[in-house]
Amino acid sequence: MTERELKKLSRAELLEMLLALTKENRKLKEELDDAYAELEDRRILIDKAGSIAEAALQLNGVFQAAEEAAAQYLENVRRLAEESSK
Question: What is the pLDDT, as a whole number, of residue 86?
Fold first, then answer.
């Protein structure tokens, strides 16, 4: 709307426009707040997913070490069994 068209409007029409713009502004602020809240929720989920992935990698290392220890134990048992049967 041009400046000339705005000057032709009555006070009531200007107030009506102001109220409509205020409502739109309030609605947009609420939508923005909702978007920020959703973004924060997603950040938290991403951080948790990262923590879970790190924990899984650490557990994988523990399991690998346990598997190696078990394999070494079985090898020692087999070796001792062979030596005792000779």
Answer: 66
DSSP 9: S
pLDDT (0 to 100) of residue 47? 78
pLDDT per position as a tens digit, 14-55: 999 999 999 999 999 999 999 999 999 888 877 777 787 777
Q: What spatial distance separates the first Cα and last Cα of the chain, rounded to whole Å?
A: 104
Tokens of 31: 């939508």
How far is residue 39's CA from residue 30's CA, in Å, rounded to a whole number?
A: 14
**17 CB-near residues (< 8 Å, 6+ apart):** 9
Question: Among 45, 43, 41, which Cα is nearest to 53's?
Answer: 45
Distance between CA 35 and CA 86 in Å, rounded?
76
